[in-house]
Model the fold of this input.
Amino acid sequence: MIKIMTEIRSAIIVFAVIGVIITGVSIYFNSIQTGNNISFESVIIDDSSTKINKLNFPKAPELRGINGYINTEPLTITDLEGKVIIVDFWTYTCINCIRTIPYLNAWHEKYSDDGLVILGVHAPEFNFEKDYKNLKAAVEKFEIKYPVLQDNEMSTWKAYKNNFWPHKYIIDHEGFIRYDHIGEGAYEKTESIIQELLNERSISFGINIDITKDMVSPDETIDVNFSKIHTREIYLGYDFGSELGNKEELIQNKITSFSVVENIIPNKVYLEGTWKNNRDHVELMSETGKVFLNYNAKAVNIVAVGDSILMVKLDNTLINNSISGKDVNNSKVRILEERMYNLVFNEGYGKHLIEMELKGKGFKLYTFTFG
Done:
């Protein structure tokens, strides 16, 4: 699965009924295309006697407007000429990005000595993700050792004409984009492309490398069956329209008091207490409050900010440790850092009611995501 930039997400919703757009989006998801409608995902020839025609492949754009560097000194695509490069657009609260990181870490460990360089281009979705300290903490949390670059103004994102998190572009040793992949999955195919391009590089340079055809298998990966997730990602805030089921009207930049909820419709967020509707989140203005959601999935995550304590209930009972998310301790979550929090990790997929009882004025809720 993927996260789509806000403007693209809105356009898809508005024009989803137009068959031409649906067809176009379908083609784009399979592969990004050049102006000549040639896919990056073309056949790679592993044959030293065959000259590869690269006219069908675009040259990789240069990095632009980078605000900060982690795990590296300042660098450019030009500096890395002769290397095989993965440019990975990500953002640290994106669950889809987070689930791909173990593979990126494993590829860095396995192939960096053979000429692979991974560049994690961090293009923030929320303002707090622009903070260098927040990003550095996330890089440490996810044990990322490859270079991470801050693209706070989305300059490199725009240079690559990207609209998705995560999105990986693989660049060969001569600077051509030879393959790209949007979203999670396709790990074996992506790794096979890495291997082919590294072998192609070694032949070009007349060097010997020993790359096994075995694929990496990181221990910390999470398998997700997207066909069994029936609640889509939910965004709060007036930029994203109404995701609330309350009868009270939520007005832009205004404070509203929400009453006790009795009938909770699936896949709608319900609030209790006094809340403010901000651009990309809702903010608790009273000392206490509640959030309810009837969902259908296995795991539940939230992106949240603000010094507060959450008491988590599942199906009207305090959540127990066997199905608690990794950020829950004895049914409680302490919100301190500006990041994603894992609340529920059930044994199987299904319908459940989650209730968050909040203590702490200033708690900000941005999104619900699912696994």
